[in-house]
Amino acid sequence: MTPRLVFALALLLGWYGRAAEPRPPLAHAHNDYEHPRPLLDALERGFDSVEADVWLVDGELLVAHDRRDVRPGRDLRTLYLEPLRARVRAGGGAVHAGRPDFVLLVDVKSAAAPTYAAVAAALADYAEILTEFVEGREIRRAVTVIISGNRDEAALRAAPRRWAAMDGRRVHLDSELPATLIPWISENWRTFSPWHWTGPMPDEVRRNLGEWVARAQARGRRLRFWNVPDSPAAWRELRAAGVDVIGTDDLAGLEAFLARP
Predict the structure, then answer these.
(1) Looking at the chain, which terminus has fewer C-beta neighbours within 10 angstroms, N or C?
(2) Segments in the chain forming alpha helices (H)
(3) Is residue 84, in this structure, part of any structural domain at all?
(4) 3-state secondary structure at position 17
(5) Residue 78 is part of which domain span?
(6) DSSP letters spanning 21-43
(7) CATH at residue 206
(8) pLDDT of residue 56
(9) % of the chain exceeding 90 in pLDDT
(10) Is 223 among the domain residues?
(11) Which residues are 147's β-sheet partners?
(12) What integer pLDDT is reported at residue 29 of this predicted model?
């Protein structure tokens, strides 16, 4: 099905109309590990998604934005997997009570294949809390892991059983690959549009944004952009368009924005 046909179908079935009354977006903590208390600060503010950049260094999955910043003890298990398991066990099976949807976005910074192999091995130890994907079926649990950055797409596609899905890009927007493999589409705003949030959003940009939302949702995927300003004006445009995930470094600011009607 061509992008135009997908968009036309979305219009016909009312998906594009969600822009007028969008579902609440997920609040995503971009580069979460850079906050004073990784994971915990985001959880206390009610965020439903956190991002951890990982480097495979001497067999350890160390968390940092740049290779030079890795430190022993700041690893994926210690900062994220262990505290998430403890919270889910204490919380009756959910990260947030009454909200079953929580995402751990693992942004792979080192080489794709060996890093994903190490991530997959680590995730298997936390299977009790992680959404499982078995031969195209999804077994939903408290935390869904999505692999971003240097993604080993071949390994993810070939695995008959896995505890992670893959973050898609523009090329996956109309892909026939299932949402159980690619539940998200993430894109750099600077490659999406030449408009950089100065003055009112142009009508053409707004139309294109609405089209992307419709196309992603027609495939059962969520849509996220990075390189968007941390400002209520930008968040307001994304929410009005129905963008499913809004990321920020300003946890308090986005929390306050989403709390307003």
Answers:
(1) C
(2) 3-13, 40-44, 76, 82-90, 112-124, 153-158, 189-192, 203-218, 232-241, 251-259
(3) yes
(4) helix
(5) 3-15+25-259
(6) SPPPPEEEETTGGGSSSTTHHHH
(7) 3.20.20.190
(8) 98
(9) 88
(10) yes
(11) 106, 166
(12) 98
- pTM for this model (two decimals): 0.91
The mean pLDDT of 187-209, rounded to a whole number, is: 96
Taking the C-alpha atoms of residue 148 and residue 142, their distance in angstroms, rounded to an integer, is: 19
Beta bridge partners of 165: 146
Strands of the sheet with 132-134, listed across from one edge: 137-139, 132-134, 161-162
Tokens of 244: 């499913």
CB 95 within 8 A of CB 43: yes
Cα atoms found within 13 Å of the Cα of residue 8, Cβ hemisphere only: 5
Looking at every residue in the chain, the average pLDDT score rounds to 92
Helix (H) or strand (E) holding 242: none
Could you tell me if 115 and 56 are in contact, meaning their C-beta atoms sit under 8 angstroms apart? yes
Q: Specify the 3-state DSSP secondary structure of 171.
A: helix
Mean pLDDT for 90-97 is 95
- Report yes or no on 20 lying in a domain: no
Instruction: Tell me how far apart the alpha carbons of residues 211 and 163 are, in angstroms, rounded to a whole number.
Output: 31
Provide the pLDDT confidence category of residue 8 given band limits of 50, 70 and 90: very low
Determine which helix (DSSP H) or strand (DSSP E) holds 176, and give its type and residue range. none
What the block records as the tokens of 230 is: 């941390």
Tell me whether residue 196 is in a domain.
yes
Q: Which residues sit opposite 137 in a β-bridge?
A: 134
| Number of separate domains in the chain | 1
> What residue has token string 């898609």?
168
Q: Are 106 and 54 in contact (CB under 8 A)?
A: yes
Query: What tokens does 167 get?
Result: 């973050």
Structure tokens at 113: 């294949």
